[in-house]
Amino acid sequence: MVIFDDIGSFPLPEGVDRKWVEENLVTPEYEEMVRKAFLMKASVVECPNYPQFRDMVGQFMELIRNPEMQDDAYLISEKYAVIKEVEVIAKMGYPDPVRVCVTGPFELYYREFGPVIYDDILENLSKSVERFIRNAVEMLDDVCSVSLDEPSLGLNPELQPTEEQMQLAYEPFKIDVDVQIHLHSPLYYRSMLNVENIDVFGVEAAKDARVLDIIDREEVESAGKKLRIGIARTDIDSILGEFNQRYGVNAWKDENLALKAIDEIENVNVIRERFEKAEEKFGELLAYTGPDCGLFSFPSQRCAMKLLENTAKALGLE
Known about the structure:
Elements: E1 3-4, H1 18-23, H2 28-42, H3 58-64, E2 70-72, E3 75-76, H4 84-92, E4 98-103, H5 105-113, H6 119-139, E5 143-150, H7 163-170, E6 178-183, E7 200-203, H8 217-222, E8 226-232, H9 236-247, H10 255-265, H11 268-282, E9 286-291, H12 301-314
Parallel strand pairs: 1-9, 4-5, 5-6, 6-7, 7-8, 8-9
Antiparallel strand pairs: 2-3
């Protein structure tokens, strides 16, 4: 069975910006904002991720680098390794499966230190990420998967970890749920086939289906891994740009036009066709599917939900 999940990030409500979020993390108003957005996603997504409203690096590194919260340099104490949004969902008593995304150790390292990798710091960052994950899994009633988001791996030529460093980075993640790795480029997937604790490779394929030609089904199968294939585009700038050029309008300034653009360019039939091709190519190796990436850059929450609703319909869930 293929599970419909989402990557995580979600547009802020109208009138709210990230500065407000950072200033109001511990307020009832922020908790209510998280609850509303999560329930929106949960109304159509089988395994919704907590709504990620904050910067993917900052939300973790601000805690990890705080000396008052550390057991060692860049090793956060377990009691502080809490994802606020997960805490909110846990307080709701939500009983169904939840997906938990965390920023991967290589992305955290690269954004903090650059491309030269020192193993001791990488190891501590990796252990810190594992503590966030373990606490989240313990808080929630049901976690379908956790996902390590590694956008720079394969996209940034400066970042060139060795296979030994990959083993080191992912060695702590001995967790009794599926561990996905969200690769924005599949370039490094072969280097991770022998990394025991990674269960699922996430591949963005909706924008460019040719990336699936890089994935060797037999290699993935023999390594005992599964796949998450993106089937709905999330490059909203390009989607609206195509629509604007086609009709001579400005969909960025009109939510109704933006909704029409998503419904026309990323319609149910287009998404269904991508899913069927991925299923035909990979069969039972296809374990998860959904949008390519996060939805934070979408013009509004309604627009983000339109893409999720179209995806659910394409998968026969609505």
